[in-house]
Amino acid sequence: MAANPGSGTKKLSGGNGGAAALLLFLLLCCTASMALTPDGEALLELKVAFNATAGQRLGSWRAADPNPCGWEGVSCSFPDLRVQSINLPYMQFGGIISPSIGRLTKLQRLALHQNSLHGPIPAEIRNCTELRAIYLRANYLQGGIPPGIGDLTHLTILDLSSNLLRGAIPATIGSLTHLRFLNLSTNFFSGEIPNVGVLGTFKSSSYVGNLELCGLPIQKGCRGTLGFPAVLPHSDPLSSSGVSPITNNNKTSHFLNGVVIGSMSTMAVALVAVLGFLWVCLLSRKKTGVNYEKMDKQTLPDGNEKPTPTMSLD
């Protein structure tokens, strides 16, 4: 039987196609395994946003790396290779904090203090729900504190001091039950410090340098826009003001305080009156003593001195 030359060619061609497909699959797998992790891509966006200085100082941050765990200032958890810490203080960065920070969902420590960063604190930071410590002091950050920071339930340290931040302090910070250190000093915050949760437990040093702040933590009363107290005497405070209504106990306390103050005033007046009376008596006794001494020198008509008793004040 004569061989069919076409059949052999077809079999060979089919074998080559399968080998090529297998080779392409292996190549794609290798390429995927060598691609930078999503955390690494987020960090590269941060690097670009920092400024040209970051390009010089962060030379180890390369897109060709499979993960960012060997990059300067970066530490990761194992074995998942997720970014846990960014520690880059004193680096002279002058750009902004990229919203890509919100993609680092396993980040526990963010330390970018003592740089020249400006712009707002990105609202996306609320997605970094594992954060324990935020150090952003001594920059030029602007805007307000994102209310979403109250979602960072594991946060123990929040240092935003020495920036250009302004506006009200979010009451949501009060819900951070693990917060042990708070420094919002030397900014431009204004309004009443919410006396809620942990916000009422920090000393005035946490808020010093914000001239327009008021409230119980700094022992400074708040005033309305017309210069009058925000809560007028004998008036019912609005529920939106955040001040608890005056209770009967408070009224009783005020009454007792008035009684005590009135009693003390009466006692003071009585004491002054008694001292005045004693002083008059003393002057009267001195005058009487002088008169007795004059009488002591008088003589009788026969020329003999009349013995006159003398009175001494000793």
Automatic annotation (TrEMBL):
Domain of life, per lineage: Eukaryota
Molecular function terms from GO: ATP binding
Membrane topology term: Single-pass type I membrane protein
GO cellular component: membrane
Keyword S-adenosyl-L-methionine: no
Coiled coil location: none
TM region positions: 255-282
Entries under Gene3D superfamilies matching the protein: Ribonuclease Inhibitor (3.80.10.10)
UniProt keywords, alphabetically: ATP-binding, Glycoprotein, Leucine-rich repeat, Membrane, Nucleotide-binding, Receptor, Repeat, Signal, Transmembrane, Transmembrane helix
Pfam families for the chain: LRR_1, LRRNT_2
Subcellular location as annotated: Membrane
Lineage: Eukaryota, Viridiplantae, Streptophyta, Embryophyta, Tracheophyta
Residues annotated as signal peptide: 1-35
Residue ranges constituting the Leucine-rich repeat-containing N-terminal plant-type domain according to the UniProt record: 38-77
Name under which the protein is recorded: Leucine-rich repeat-containing N-terminal plant-type domain-containing protein
